[in-house]
Amino acid sequence: MLPWRNCKKHYFSIEEILASQEKVPCTFRRTANQLGILDPSAEDGIIQKGAVVDIPLWLAKTLARPNHGLVKMQLPKIYKDVYRDSLVADASVVDLYKMSKFFYSFGKQLSDYDEANSKELRNLLTETFKNRFRQLMAWVQNMGVEEVITEKLDTLERKLLIDGRNAQNRLNNWLSNRVETIQAADMVMNHSKKRKFSDLEV
What we know:
Elements: H1 14-19, E1 23-28, E2 32-33, E3 46-47, E4 52-56, H2 57-63, E5 71-73, H3 81-90, H4 96-99, H5 103-113, H6 118-141, H7 147-150, H8 155-178, H9 186-201
Antiparallel strand pairs: 1-4, 1-5, 2-3
Subcellular location: Nucleus
Subunit structure: Component of the GINS complex.
Keywords: DNA replication, Nucleus
């Protein structure tokens, strides 16, 4: 199992920052004044108690803290129900990028704040990654993979694909260089010539 619990967030990680912009459905526990900007349908800038509004994760985490308790975060649909069943059935054919550009990073951040679904969510992330990793490695070795296929990869998988292909290219170059004729260094060649001339003089 992947150590999601030990995956620490990096303050300057662009991926982490962008993942925190993904929206989470939140139920308002009480009426909120002057927060209508979060919900275009709110009248007079007031969000009524019980309203469900999609809020960026970074803001939802703040509003859901015990000292605020203004909202209750819900699990986004991409991590439950029909989507979860599709991932369990055959994760390798699912278009993760369409579901979320930051499927793994977004899910990891959610699991840190949603204790009720934390274990189940981390298991889903782990199994999804494991089931797609073998196919990802096959694409690493097949440089002719069509862009249509790689478009289904989320940001993390795309980075792994690029890094993997770069590593494969370096390996191929190294292997091809090994079969070439080994050329003696100039210093060795010059030393050999000097020895030959010395032998002739003797």
